[in-house]
Amino acid sequence: IPISDYAFFGIFLPSSPINLILINVLVPPACIRPSVISDLRSGSNEDDLSIKLSEIIFKNNSIYIDMMEGYRVESLYNNWDTLQMLICMYITGEAKGLPLSMMPKESIRSLVQRLKGKHGRFRGNLSGKRVDFSARTVISPDPNMSIDQVVVPVLMAMTLTFPQHVNRYNIQSLRQAVLNGPEVHPGANFVISLDQTGRKFLRFGERENIAAKLRPGDIVERHIADGDIVLFNRQPSLHRISIMAHKVKVMASRTLRFNECVCTPYNADFDGDEMNIHVPQTQEARAEAYHLMGVKNNITTP
Fold this sequence. Notes:
By secondary structure, the chain is α+β, with helices and mostly antiparallel strands. The protein has three domains: 20-123, no CATH class; 134-155 and 226-297, Beta Barrel (Barwin-like endoglucanases), CATH 2.40.40; 164-222, RNA polymerase ii (Dna Ligase, domain 1, 2-Layer Sandwich), CATH 3.30.1490. It is built from nine helices and twelve strands. The protein has a six-stranded mixed β-barrel. Strands 5-8-6-7 form a four-stranded antiparallel β-sheet, covered by helices on one side. A hairpin with a 6-residue loop joins strand 6 (188-192) and strand 7. Helix 1 (48-69) runs antiparallel to helix 2. InterPro entries: RNA_pol_asu, RNA_pol_N, RNA_pol_Rpb1_1, RPC1. Residues 18-302 form the RNA polymerase N-terminal domain. Its main location: nucleus. One of its GO terms (cellular component) is nuclear lumen. Keywords: DNA-directed RNA polymerase, Metal-binding, Nucleotidyltransferase, Nucleus, Transcription, Transferase, Zinc.
C-alpha cells in the first residue's frame, strides 16, 4: 500500500500496515524457560519455548541458505511454510489446517498458554493473591442474625487472631485470654513483649508466668471474638459490594452463616457455595472496613 493511500484506509503515520507483519520474534529471558535437570538420565530437559526457538532459528538459517545458494523455489516455500508453522506453535501452541504429517506429536506450553486461563500468569500469579488471616468454608442461611453479622465457627475463631495492644482497660481480659491459650475460646495464640524479646507461642509457654508479666504496650494475638470486624467475600468479586464488612458472632457451627437478605450483593445461594473471611490486622483497617464497607452503609446499590 503506497504511503499516499494511507489516509483512505484511516491509517496515519507513524502507523503502517507493515507493522501487522511479524519480522522479529521476541526471545524471553532464561528465567521464563528454565532447564529441568533430569534424575533419570544425564543432561537436562530444555523448556518447550527453548526447543521451539532453536527450531525457528535453524529453519530461518535454512531459508537464508536457500536464498543465497539459489535453491529451487519449491524447497524455499516448504521451508517457509515450516517456519510459519513453528512460529504459530511458539506463540499460540496450535497451528490449524496442517496435514497429519506436520502435526506435532505433543502439545507444548506456548507463550499464549502461559498467559491465559485460570492458572496463567495474569489470573494465577498476578491477580491471584495468597494471604494470611483468612478462612474459607461453606455458607448457610441464618435468619436470626442481623444483616451486618456473620457467624464464624469456633474452630476458625481459634485460628484467626487479632493483635490486641494491652492497656489498663483490657489487661484483665487479655490475661484471661493468655491463660486460656490456643485450646479454649476466647483465648490467645501468641504474645509479643514490649521489649521485643520474641514471639511467645502459648501452646508450649508457661501461661501463668506470661499472663502475670503482661503489661501495657505488650501485644496479645487473641482469638477473634463477638463484635470483631471481618471482611466477607464471595468470588467472583465482580463489583465492590462483593466484599463487605461484617461483625463476628462466634458459634459452635461448621459453616459461615449470615442473614439471607444479604445474598443479593454477593450473588450467593446455599447449594454448596463457599465464601471467604479476612481479618483486618490494625485498628485503622477495622475502622475503614466498618465505615466504608459495612453492610448497613452499602444497602443502596452502587
